[in-house]
Amino acid sequence: MAPFLAMADVRDMIKNTFKTFDANGDGKISREELKRVLQSISTNKDKFDDGAVDALLNASDTNKDGVISYDEFVDWVTKDTKANSEGDASPEFQPLDKRGAFKMDYRKLLPERFVDVKQRYDMDSQELGAGGFGKVFVARDKEFSNRMVAVKKVMKPTSKNSEMEDLLREIAVMKDLDHPNICKLLATFEEGRSLFFVMELCEGGEVFDRILENGSITEKTTANIIQQVCSALFHAHARGIAHRDIKPENVVFCSKNRDDLQIKLIDWGLAVNISEGMKAAVGSMTYAAPEVISSQDRKNYSEACDLWSVGVMTYVMLCGKPPFWGTREQHFKAAKKEQYPFKDAPWDKMNPQAKDFVSKLLKAKPADRLPIKDVIKHLWLTSNIDGSADQEASADVLKNLDNFCAQSTFKRMCITAVARQLDHKHLKDIHQVFREMDVNGDGVLSVEEVANGFKKISGDSVDSAKLKEIFSRMDADGSQTIDYTEFCAAGLDAKTTDQDDVIWAAFKTFDVDNSGFISVDNLKSILNSADVKDTWSSEVCEQVGIEIVEKFSKAGDGQISFEDWRGVMQTCWGKSKSTVGEEHVELGAYDILTKVSALGAK
Hints:
This protein has a six-stranded mixed β-sheet with strand order 5-9-10-8-7-6, covered by helices on one side. The two termini are about 20 Å apart. α1 crosses α26 and α9 runs antiparallel to α11 (about 350-360). It is globular and about 90 Å long. The model is unreliable at about 1-10, about 80-90 and about 575-600 (pLDDT under 50). The protein is α+β, with helices and mostly antiparallel strands. It is built from 26 helices and 16 strands. Among the domains are: about 5-85 and about 575-600, Recoverin, domain 1 (Orthogonal Bundle); about 110-200, 2-Layer Sandwich (Phosphorylase Kinase, domain 1); about 205-380, Transferase(Phosphotransferase) domain 1 (Transferase(Phosphotransferase), domain 1).
């Protein structure tokens, strides 16, 4: 990736680069000369085939005489326009794209503020939960009272550094995990000795409460809930994170509607990076695996401890009682011997697949438990998944993907900031489409899953080149998979993102100092934190910030107001000509310049 250059430096660079292309020195670049240079600088990932050469020639050769003049070459490299849907030339602001394509960590588009949370939210007296970890309250955004969140308040420890490390680890874990069944962390606030976790509000209550009310939960409902929990664990384990406290109290329904069974896995306070090693005897005794109970801070155990807990939780949901009870010694002894009631009512009439699922997880030896990749495929889970997503909603999501991919990188970044702040209520249709596409249940989409999803929704296969480009543009962090937030960002429509409370939440992502405006320093901070700095210097991030503020600040006062920001978001769904499959025409000119100049230097 080329560093940012002043325009005078760029034009000097262009002169030398033009000479590299113009092998015969006639002041023009022919197709053969263009192809020779492009092929000499190409790598396995840069497919400068005949089609790409022709596309670049066509984009540069404005008078269509079959060659590229010097003036045409300069215009191609420095151009600021692209065709809109009617084919007219219109200004398009692409301060990020002009420096070449790059990837950024969208997970870091999460506000971390060192101010009192009460400046932003009105805290209700209603507690959602309480315990050794702190208290959780319902809170309303002061600017938009219809925007409600859950706020977890924790007192920072005064002396034990390890306890503070635990809190910071919980924040890091929740920022890292991005899954439709994992409660979303929206922001953190720090003020004095208080630390606040702002999370999406799940109003449906704990699965545990539903069990107490009903005595047990139906088999079909249990399978649906457990499938979602296992999908969340599959995602977490794949990212090297173990939960270590799976139980009905830590699974909550998103909605009060009893027919809506979408759940979120919450309370990642005991979660840990698997690579750091796990020895602590943590979690609830009822759901803890034998190796966790006996570890006593001496013996290492693995993420398979979560699978045992899932087995116990499933057992409890199906019959209303735990499989092991009594004193600690009695409990541990029965668990080690895998002795639990499995023949009397209701088990005598239970679906054999449900019993098979439980028995394959309640194995005293971790190595004998069904691996998570096979758990998610178990017939009892897959046969109880409810129907497919609404076809009309699916088609709308598909159209939105195409619009998203036509946007400049800055606008895609803004849309992703919106998606990062949306809760389950705004993402219901997209959630269903994502879940249907995610065939293997790991919480991310592969290119094959996206291709199959497109075919199922539209009935047609997607051209491989177009599919590759769509996938690349959705894959903001370059992970080679589409994460949940990335898919949600691409699937959003204008109706959702025109809502002021939604736009406000994204605006506050960039307003990092809570001033009510987005400044150059704010944008520089966001770009630096989102790992763009791995590609650009801090100076480049600042220059991009200046360009963005100059473009969108209507008052010309060096800052972007909320009204300015609303205008930015509204343009994200204006008419745009899709450039999918043509990115090498509109983007990457600086990359090519850098490679060719390096070639000339050699």
